[in-house]
Amino acid sequence: MSRADQAASSQKHDVFQAIADPTRRSLLQLLVDQEIPVKDIAGHYPMSRTAVSKHLRILSEAGLVVERKVGRETRYRLDPEPLLELKRWLAYYERYWENRLQALKRLVEADESVHPRGE
């Protein structure tokens, strides 16, 4: 299998799809500072270990978590690198709203100079 094929197969889900689910966002928070075995991760959620594993697989396919075998145990940790794509996308909209709020501020201040309060 070529590197391109491997990359395509490992990117079955994009970051946006992966973080769309609140459980997966919670899993990312849990894995922020530590590598945790799947059995311990499952203990944090009111669902089966199989269901937790499915969520972890989606996060793994999006490149957001890395798994490592230690004996018979699979451990997971966060890989924050793919979140940069999300950060760049959100930065565009942050600038958009900042510009809109600045325009609103100028409009309100201009209106107050023409129509001062209390008169």
From TrEMBL:
It comes from the Bacteria. Keywords: DNA-binding, Transcription, Transcription regulation. The keyword DNA-binding applies. InterPro entries: ArsR-like_HTH (IPR011991), HTH_ArsR_DNA-bd_dom (IPR001845), HTH_MetalResp_TranReg (IPR051081), WH-like_DNA-bd_sf (IPR036388), WH_DNA-bd_sf (IPR036390). Residues 4-98 form the HTH arsR-type domain. NCBIfam families: HTH_metalloreg. This is Metalloregulator ArsR/SmtB family transcription factor. It comes from Paenibacillus oenotherae.
